[in-house]
Amino acid sequence: MRPSGRELSELRPISIETGITKHAEGSCLIKMGDTHVLCTATIEDRAPSFLKGTGLGWVTAEYGMLPRATNTRNRREAAAGKQGGRTVEIQRLIGRALRAGVDRSALGERQIVVDCDVIQADGGTRCASITGGWVALRLAVNKLLKAGACVSDPLMDHVAAISCGIYAGQPVADLDYAEDSEAGTDGNFIMTGSGKLIEVQMSAEGATFSRDQMTRLLDLAEAGVARLVEAQKDATA
């Protein structure tokens, strides 16, 4: 029995509300259970200097967690004077994931920055950030297309992510914190809407896992991402 009472393959309730902020070209608030992330996308009419003259655009991301997103207060990283290693790793992951679904030639020499701010954390914040970040990116790109700034759609496919793991000996989908903290194996699966893998992060957290268990987790992830893509479609329809 999972702590939440969910079935092994059952995701937490998903909610994606768009148009959350006034100024960002694209924005949404994604809620996956008690994990809530504000995602915004900002269009900058110039690409990074290393892409100057290439005709290619760029999508990057920044990630942060509010001090009381967790059950105890975490000091702001700005107050510490530097980002933590976890933050840097997660925002690089978000950027890589989103770029995998982008035709950078169609985007042209401009940059879109996706900011993911965790308001409340209960496991799976990086996965929620990627899933919500794509929605914010989609809304920003829609504005470029409407303005005629892009001739063709730079977004080639949906991108979404889900965590799956081995909890109490059973493969389960969409881990919350209670499960994540006790999981024998923890994995993050990033996929396209067509079911192609972008990145898989899996590690044993005290108990090794078999190839058969990994396959079962991939099956759960594939079904879970398909559900998340449907939520993205509903939010951006």
From TrEMBL:
The keyword tRNA-binding applies. InterPro entries: ExoRNase_PH_dom1, ExoRNase_PH_dom2, ExoRNase_PH_dom2_sf, PNPase/RNase_PH_dom_sf, Ribosomal_Su5_D2-typ_SF, RNase_PH, RNase_PH_bac-type, RNase_PH_CS. Its EC number is 2.7.7.56. The keyword Metal-binding does not apply. Residues 10-140, 159-223 form the Exoribonuclease phosphorolytic domain. It catalyses: tRNA(n+1) + phosphate = tRNA(n) + a ribonucleoside 5'-diphosphate. GO terms for biological process: rRNA 3'-end processing; rRNA catabolic process; tRNA processing. Signal peptide: none annotated. One of its GO terms (molecular function) is tRNA binding. Phosphate binds at residues 86, 124-126. Belongs to the RNase PH family. HAMAP family: RNase_PH. Phosphorolytic 3'-5' exoribonuclease that plays an important role in tRNA 3'-end maturation. Removes nucleotide residues following the 3'-CCA terminus of tRNAs; can also add nucleotides to the ends of RNA molecules by using nucleoside diphosphates as substrates, but this may not be physiologically important. Probably plays a role in initiation of 16S rRNA degradation (leading to ribosome degradation) during starvation. Homohexameric ring arranged as a trimer of dimers. This is Ribonuclease PH. It comes from Thioclava atlantica.
